[in-house]
Design a protein that fits this description.
The protein is an alpha+beta fold and 232 residues long. It contains 6 helices and 18 strands. 37% of the residues are buried. InterPro entries: Fumarylacetoacetase-like_C (IPR011234), Fumarylacetoacetase_C_sf (IPR036663).
């Protein structure tokens, strides 16, 4: 006998798989903060502190090429370009040695941020949810399977806004690499197939305005294009 739900069931959130008609169903989105030294310095944070973890809801995902509204309740709406890791399996207390065995593929993502709210919350040691985990805050490209792109550990990570370069770094500049991130995250969470991990952003973050076109690129992964729409 089928279950009767009292409210509409949320649709499956999925990302396309590059070069295929298949889809990657998204379970959770984990994010790493403060994982590039120059970004830590540009925001005036303590560079001796380890990177931190936070989450976004899976329905914050936005497909490549879409327009997102300028976020509610902010006057300082920022981009943060990141390498995203898509898991095909998981578990808890995964060792660094075996961490990459759980990776299905990689993508380009944006961690859109209400920077003014983040600063207010940080000042009073509050959680970042309203600054990070809001609607349309996770634009993401198609997933590129490992068998086609390998495990990118170095290479250009670059963002332009209206054709002007804003972020320009190398994946090798990450403080924690992908195996270290997966291993450490699995000490706190039982990771599962469908999880996405956004690995942190390099220096050069900044504000956007309605009409801006953001194009992120990572060597071997193509591009992610996101347009900022009108204020809601």
């Amino acid at each position: 006998m089928s279950a009767e739900f009292v409210v509409p069931v949320s649709p499956v959130v999925a990302l396309p798989v590059a070069g295929s008609s298949a889809q990657f169903p998204v379970r959770r989105i984990y994010c790493v903060g403060r994982n590039y030294l120059e970004h830590i310095r540009e925001l005036g944070n303590d560079e001796k502190e380890p990177p931190i973890f936070f989450t976004k809801p899976r329905d914050a995902i936005v497909q490549d090429g879409e327009t997102i509204p300028y976020a509610l309740a902010t006057a300082n709406y920022h981009y943060e370009l990141e390498l995203a890791v898509a898991l095909k399996s998981g578990g808890s207390n995964i060792t660094e040695e075996h961490a990459l065995d759980h990776v299905y593929g990689y993508a380009i993502a944006l961690d859109m941020t209400r920077r003014d709210l983040q600063k207010q919350l940080t000042a009073r040691s509050g959680p970042w949810d309203v600054a990070k985990a809001f609607d349309h805050s996770a634009p993401c490209s198609a997933i590129h399977p490992v068998e086609r792109v390998g495990h990118p550990a170095r290479g250009s990570i670059r963002l332009t806004v209206n054709g002007q370069v804003k972020q320009d770094s190398d994946l090798a500049a990450m403080i924690w690499n992908v195996p270290q991130i997966i291993s450490r995250l699995s000490a706190f969470f039982d990771l599962q197939p469908g999880d996405i991990i956004m690995t942190g952003t390099p220096a050069g973050v900044g504000p956007v305005q309605p009409g801006d076109v953001l194009v992120g690129s990572i060597d071997g992964l193509g591009t992610l294009t996101t347009t900022i729409g009108a204020r809601a």
